[in-house]
Amino acid sequence: MGTLQDALLKAGLADEEQLKKKPRRNKPGAAANDRKSARSGPPRHKKKRQRKRDSESDLARAYAARQREDKRRKEEEKQRRVAEQEERRRRNKELDALIKGNTLNRKEAELPRYFEHMGRIRRVLCTPEQREQLNNGEIGVVNLRGSYLLVTLETLEKYREVAPDLVPSLEGREEPEDDGSHYPPVPDDLVW
């Protein structure tokens, strides 16, 4: 049968250097206390403190992880907004180049032409001839930074390739005939 030292070496809990060290001499009766404390571990109040510290450290780690995640999300959101802004700038420069010198708007235009775009009723001022051309589909309307401009069909198609959302549809919606179907049905048991 081996000694405790051999068992500790075999289990990997001790090494040769630790065995060569001289064991500490205790006062009489202290060895019994050491064995007792080694078996039972730290006193109970110390265990509670240790558990409380562990839970606090877990909470602190979780809080720190959450802060890092929030910071990462905010940074991603900021980068996404910056990228969208850069894309808008690039697109607006391209649209400016398309429109430059190709608008048909005139200062003397007085007749409004109304149409729906982006969920709202909008208007563009035009001359009587331009209004007729708009209604016949010979010219078109585009939106550039909130202003509606009259353009040729060639410019309109180029504009539509770059920014289809900024080209309003000038076709009006036809209202269905009133056949009474939009009213709820009259119950059979209703007596007039």
Task: Name a few traits of the molecule.
single chain; 192 residues; alpha+beta; 6 helices; 4 strands
Overview of the structural elements:
It is built from 6 helices and 4 strands. The protein has 192 residues and is of the alpha+beta class. It has a two-stranded antiparallel sheet. A two-stranded antiparallel ribbon has the order 3-4. A hairpin with a 2-residue loop joins strand 3 and strand 4. Helix 4 packs antiparallel against helix 6. It is elongated, with a radius of gyration of 42 Å. The mean pLDDT is 80.
Summarize the structure.
This protein is an alpha+beta fold and 192 residues long. The chain is built from 6 helices and 4 strands; from the N terminus they run ααααββαββα.
SSE layout and pairing:
Blueprint: H1 4-11, H2 16-20, H3 30-40, H4 44-99, E1 111-117, E2 120-126, H5 128-136, E3 139-144, E4 147-152, H6 153-162
Antiparallel strand pairs: 1-2, 3-4
Task: Classify the secondary structure makeup into a structural class.
Answer: alpha+beta
Number of discrete helical segments: 6
Oligomer: single chain
Uncertain segments are none
Across the major sheet, the strand order is 1-2
Q: What string gives the helices and strands in order?
A: HHHHEEHEEH
Give the number of DSSP strands.
Answer: 4
Strand count, sense and closure of the main sheet?
2 strands, antiparallel
Kindly estimate the percentage of residues that lie in beta strands according to DSSP. 5-15%
Given the C-alpha coordinates, what overall shape results? elongated
State the end-to-end CA separation.
109 Å
Report the C-alpha radius of gyration, rounded.
Answer: 42 Å
Q: Helical percent range? A: 40-55%
**Rounded average pLDDT:** 80
